[in-house]
């Protein structure tokens, strides 16, 4: 008994704050995709974490969530929604501070350079020419890695989003490729089935809005947006072939266009376009969405895989592009975006 009482205790784990995309960031280099600039990372040991917050230029502390929920894939993850309107032109210091049991603390500073750039169309994004992800767009969720094959999710999770373009984009067509490395076997209760594809006319997460989403840090209200075109797996049966799905921008209603078998490790080509049509008689917005998918290294087909016309009072009529991987480990290849004229028939 005496010997057991004197046995050495397991040493305490040293507090650490990991920043996923470095400690020098550039906000607005290519225009503003949303109202917030996201700083993401992970804190250990999260089991001993009492408080986590951020400050902008020494201002008041803003609490951060750090338990797994929706945009936070693991316990200890954080995602700071920095209001872009609170960033001064030029250099800003963002301080992430953690307080642990027993009074231990950890701190990391991030320099965020506020710029006022833009993303004009057409746009060609070649990943081998990108030195830092801020030169291509904005990592709104999760950790992303630039590899020789493209932009890859470092770890699968809920709605891993990489934003390209800016909120002023309206009618455009996107082409890219996606390689499916693996599909998570289970997703949390608040997640639907796994998915990978493209989200058009995205302008950021919201609190409130037409669907009355609650507030949070980070915010997780995902609508309204334009629409999603993607491969969508069955939540109960992820081993089945995914469906080709259109996901509305104002609700969780979807339209399925049959299955599309994809093996892990294989790649597909994606093309997704949005074009504004005349408003409905009651003033609701009307947009035509067209989607094409094909297996690589095969040739891109001539016809569209599906076409869907969305009529909505709340779905966004403009906004940028989001590369979207939902509980899927995926690599997106080079991205080409071109403008679409209002009277263009999208016959290709």
Describe it.
With 348 residues, the protein is mainly beta. It folds into two domains: 16-114, Immunoglobulin-like; 123-339, Exo-inulinase, domain 1 (Jelly Rolls). The protein has one helix and 24 strands. Strands 9, 11, 12, 14, 19, 20, 21, 23 and 24 form a nine-stranded antiparallel β-sheet that branches. The chain has a seven-stranded antiparallel β-sheet with strand order 10-13-22-15-16-17-18, with no helix packed on it. A five-stranded mixed β-sheet has the order 2-8-7-4-5, with no helix packed on it. β4 and β5 form a beta hairpin. The protein is globular, with a radius of gyration of 21 Å. The termini are far apart. The relative contact order is 0.18. Mean pLDDT is 95; it is low at 1-8.
> What do we call the CATH topology of the largest domain?
Jelly Rolls
> Stretches where pLDDT falls below 50 for ≥5 residues?
1-8
* Total of helices: 1
Give the overall form: globular
In angstroms, what is the radius of gyration? 21 Å
Instruction: Work out the strand percent.
Output: over 45%
Let me know the average pLDDT: 95
Structural class: mainly beta
Query: Which architecture of the largest domain per CATH?
Result: Sandwich
H/E element string? HEEEEEEEEEEEEEEEEEEEEEEEE
Query: Could you describe the largest sheet, including whether it forms a barrel?
Result: 9 strands, antiparallel
Number of extended strands: 24
CATH superfamily of the largest domain: Exo-inulinase, domain 1
Tell me the domain tally. 2
Portion in helices: under 10%
* CATH domain class of the largest domain: Mainly Beta
Distance between the termini: 80 Å
